[in-house]
Amino acid sequence: MVLLIPMCMLPHLYEVCCHARWGQTLGKMAARTKVTMRDGFPVTWRAALFRSAVGMGFTLAFIGTRAAALYRAPETAFSGATWAARHAALMLHSPEPLIPPFVGQAWFWSEAIVMLLNRERRALHDFIADTMVVDVRKEKRTKKITLLHGIKATVDPSLCEHPDGDAACAGQSESD
After folding, report:
1. 97-146: per-residue pLDDT in tens?
2. What is d(CA 124, CA 79) in angstroms, rounded to the nearest whole number?
3. Are 95 and 69 in contact (CB under 8 A)?
4. 154 by DSSP, 3-state: which?
C-alpha cells in the first residue's frame, strides 16, 4: 500500500511537470507538438495541474478502492500467496468501485468526440485548463514578447529586427 500511491500518481506528476516546465512530454517532443496556453504563451503550473486533474481523480478513486480491499482482506490471504492469489483476494474483497467503470469510458469517448468536433482540436482537458496542443514547427515562426506595462504579444520575428541591424525584441522573449 505504501508504494501504491506514488506508483499510481507518478505518470500524472511526470505529465504535470513536463507540461509546466517545457510544454512537452517525451512523446510530444517526438511528435513535434507542444502544449501552450490558448493565447500562445507557455503553460502555467496551474493549467498543467488542471489539464491532468480528471485523470488524477480517476487514479485516486482507484487507489481508494484498492485501499478498502486491502483493509477488508484477511492477512492470511496475502502471506505466502502468489501474485495471482493476492490479486484474486483483492478482487474478492473489493467494494464497489468509487467511480463506476462506464464513467471512465464516457470520459474517454467525450474527450475524443469533443476533440473531433471543434476546429482547434481541443479535448475536454484542454477546455478545463484553457490550453491547446500546437505543432512546434509552426510555432517557431512567431515570437512572444512583453511590451510596455506587461502587455504580452505574439509577433513575426522579422518585426523584431531594427533597420540598423539591432534586435529590437532582444531580451524580451516570453517563449524561452
Report:
1. 777 888 989 999 999 999 999 999 999 999 999 999 999 887 666 555 56
2. 44
3. yes
4. strand
Whether the CB-CB separation of 64 and 8 falls below 8 Å is answered with no
* Dihedral Cα 3, 4, 7, 8, nearest 10 deg: -160
Query: How many Å from the N-terminal Cα to the C-terminal Cα in the chain?
Result: 41
Q: What is the mean pLDDT of residues 150-160?
A: 59
Q: Which residues of 56-86 are buried (b: 16+ CB within 10 A; e: fewer)?
A: bebbbbbbebbebbbeebeeebeeeeeeeee
Helices within the chain (DSSP H only):
4-21, 26-31, 45-72, 83-93, 101-116, 124-129, 136-139
**Residue with C-alpha cell 532582444?**
170
What are the sequence ranges of the domains in the chain? Answer: 4-140, 141-176
What's the average model confidence in pLDDT over 8-27?
96
Query: Among residues of the chain, what percentage have pLDDT more than 90?
Result: 47
